[in-house]
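Field reference: sequence -> structure
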Amino acid sequence: MTSICSRAVLIKSVYKLWCEGDSWEELFSSLSNLPTEFTNPYFAPSASWKLDIVSFNATLTPEQQEQYRLQFEPYLPFEGPVVLRAPSNTFSCVLHHNKPEKTIKHIYFGTFIADGQRNTNDRFNLKKRHYIGPTSTCAELASLMSNQILTQNGSLVWDCFVGTGSLLVAASAHGAFCIGSDIDKRVLRGEKKGKQVGSIRGNFDQYQMKPPELVRMDLSNLLLRSIPLFDGILCDPPYGIRAGARKTRSSATDMEIPADSHSGNTVVYDPDDVIIDLLDTAARLLTLGGRLAYLFPTLSSVDVNSIPLHPCLRVVANSEDKLTLLLSRRLITMEKIAEYEMEKREMYREVTKKSLIEQGISYNDLMKTVGNLGRSE
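Structure field:
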């Protein structure tokens, strides 16, 4: 459990429950009836201890906390010393209050096991970060995505739409060696309107972490060998809602490209093709058992099990984050379960395309509903 808490950003704390009650009388009655063979080792002269009072939905003054501690004296016959820093045992009384009355709803008592990593949200807070953009992923979600792909020390992790590098910050914090790619060279250089506004490297320097390798790359036309390479891929694909995608032009034209063009010889990248390319690339480049985690916008009314599919990838998690009454985004995690066969590439891609259309989760389905809603209003 301690190992889990060392990575969990949604856990506040974990306790081993001894007893509980709706009132102090009920709690102390249960505490008194605990078997001595269970409690005596905690009360031994060699066992140091402290007692914390934890409150939810109400703030307690130090005087109130001390008053609650004293109530436990008849029921906890400690013989060991009180140690406030790193005692043998930390006991916790957790008070759950009603809102807004602030009356006690329920009381829990037990031993403290570990804290979760809620402080991650503060340490990597976007408001304090050197370089961010309008689509930078918040620290909590980035950590969740890194956990979803089982990042560990030495993992090779790739973000194929790296942007300002938020997802790779989380993966690096978990010990990964990271690679980021993007088609927009301004983002990779940290430029805005021709001026330097920061850099991905600056973010990693801020947290004293090894910066990722950065490559300007087009997901629709990857110049990479088709060999299993990455332990994990995580990304927030541009889906045409907050930010649109672009890809390399498929054939040369006579059109003149401005010298200061940030996207070069590119055209609009159809959002459905983004997903098809993403899943196909993950199936090719992930190691067997490697994972892909990405964000996918859908209508809130769509069946929760309606997600893009690929024959080489198995869905292991599908979590919904409601953005509005109409729109949601899903954190989808997929695991590579079969080796990729190049001669079946067109079939693989057709399966993904068919899953988008038949389940009503294509970009056209999304924008048609959004557009109809706008016209009705």
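Note: The longest helix spans residues 271-285.
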